[in-house]
Amino acid sequence: MNRTEFIIAIAIVLFAAFMLGWFASWLVHRLSRVTRAEMGELESMAQQLHEAEEERGRAVAELETREADLVARLSTAEAELRATQGQLRESLTEIEELRDYIDRKLGR
């Protein structure tokens, strides 16, 4: 094999390798290409995800509103409880004073 034949053989091998690579690239691109139906499905999924995120946001806002309302109601109930306990202590003190007064008047 002389130099010219060697160069031609190498050129043929390189061209065949190039063609094989190009064909493999085309085949991978063809098989992995997204179809219009898949794009429609992806659009639908994206829309559903967006709607779910909006719904989650509304649910979180409603939860925060309810939590604030419950905290306010709890604070009010605690304040009423403290006031009632104070009045109960005053009533008990007054009852004890009246008992002492009655005992003194009856001479016990």
Automatic annotation (TrEMBL):
It comes from the Bacteria. This is Uncharacterized protein. Residues 35-94 form a coiled coil. It comes from Paracoccus thiocyanatus. The chain crosses the membrane at residues 6-28. Keywords: Coiled coil, Membrane, Transmembrane, Transmembrane helix.
